[in-house]
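Supplementary Note 3. Input sequence used for the single-chain structure prediction.
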Amino acid sequence: MDPLMQSIATWLQNTPLHKLMVDYRWSWPIAESLHFIGLSLLIGTVGSFDLRLLGLGKGIPIAAFHKFIPFGIAGYLINVMTGISFLSGAPDQYMYNPAVQLKFLCMAVAGVNVVVFYLLVFGKIKAREPGEEAPLAARIVGGVSLSMWIGVMSFGRLITFFRPPFHWCPWC
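The predicted structure, written as discrete structure tokens, is reproduced below.
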């Protein structure tokens, strides 16, 4: 492990959150359960919205789906907090894990995608009537979003299969 990463891992292992995650039997299972609930909120709302952008449920106005996005944001925030607790609880298992790195890459692409959506696309589609198809740009954004969140879920599930000392990635 390079010195910078080692110093971050050492710092994480000396935080109260690390102590909470390691010393209390139910901390990790509770965090896992909350992580799953957050993911369900995120995928249930954002995934539904993305599917509407892609053309599923055309009889429902896009604005109606969009009203549920705050639940997806809440789910995302739950996942960020529980993800930080996992990282703090076992930094050596997460920092060099290629599945974690690919998960973070998908999250970053999804983040850029949502910025593009709200800056360039949402204003053009928010008032679409039931039955109207979303424009191509909205369908592309919806497809990218759905693909990235499926990637986040898939790579998240693979985290347990790529534990150090297995290092295959060239940037590790």
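The CA atoms of residues 42 and 131 lie 25 Å apart. Residues 98-125 form the longest helix (28 residues).
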